[in-house]
Amino acid sequence: MNHVPSVNQLASPLVEYLVDHAAELRLAVLRQDNGVRIVDAGIRVAGGIEAGRRIAEICLGGLGRVTLVPAAAQAAWPWELSVSTAQPVLACLGSQYAGWSLSHGEGKGSFFALGSGPGRALAGKEELFGELAYRDRADSACLVLETDKIPPLPLLDKIAGQCDVSPDRLTLILTPTTSLAGSVQVVARVLEVALHKAHFLGFPLDHIVDGMGTAPVCPPSPDFLTAMGRTNDAILFGGRVQLFVAGEEAAAEALAQRMPSEASKDYGQPFAQVFKNAGHDFYKIDPLLFAPAQIIVTSLKTGRSFRAGQLNADLLERSFS
User: Fold this and answer.
1) Cβ pair 160, 168 in contact under 8 A
2) Which three-class secondary structure state does DSSP give residue 94?
3) d(Cα 218, Cα 320) in Å, to the nearest integer?
4) Which of 236, 240, 260 is closest to 315 using CA atoms?
5) How far is Cα 71 from Cα 161, in angstroms, rounded to an integer?
6) pTM of the entire structure?
7) Residue 118: alpha-carbon gap to chain centroid
8) pLDDT digits (tens, 9 = 90+) for 109-166
């Protein structure tokens, strides 16, 4: 690779557009006492689908496109998010993946959220960045947090320090799961979920050359567990991904067969019910469940494509309705 792109530099103009057009996107921009900029995308303001779409492109580090497209004519839920990127590993795992655990305090007043977006690649706190052999350098940083609370000032200072930027050059975008923007930016992770599953299965990441995915826009819910369940189900039962891979054809075929959500022992119920059955403990859920419903893996070496999984309209309807 001759030139490795900076996800923070590429995302920066997208962040500034979000801030400059906050009013029409139904967002609020707040400066904290330490200078950190907060973009509220659904806590005290309405936010919306277009805001969520743009936030998803920020999450991808400016390396991907997220568009609204009509679903098949017979689909009960007629709109889908389409995600594509020419740098799937860097965009999805190096930026979009919610892999940075951020916490402050204990007990009732504590704060916890998972950070996603390009700022992760500045801090490099996750082992994943060692595997990717990637570390970003930039003078501004942005993170997206799926939360309905503004993080405390000491945590904001800590994040800025670990990203090696001054606090006034740090932007945090807050997207509650129960909001329109929050639900959209999660569903837009359909390709990232496939990349993460491939990584979990031990498929060589440097063999993943290109990729695209779609998943239905889910209705939000004011109830957190329902909202979280629907965003997951949009991908588990309605997500479709195609990956274009280098390497041996047999490896491409094996990846396709092991990839879909239906390969998991926990498949078969809406995610909110699976989560409840696991005692509300994510770590008790079979990690193989987190995958798109349908996958096509195309071998660039031979031109053959391997298809597995299926869309599940019945489970999607149970979840969304």
Assistant:
1) no
2) helix
3) 7
4) 236
5) 44
6) 0.96
7) 12
8) 899 999 999 999 999 999 999 999 999 999 999 999 999 999 999 999 999 999 999 9
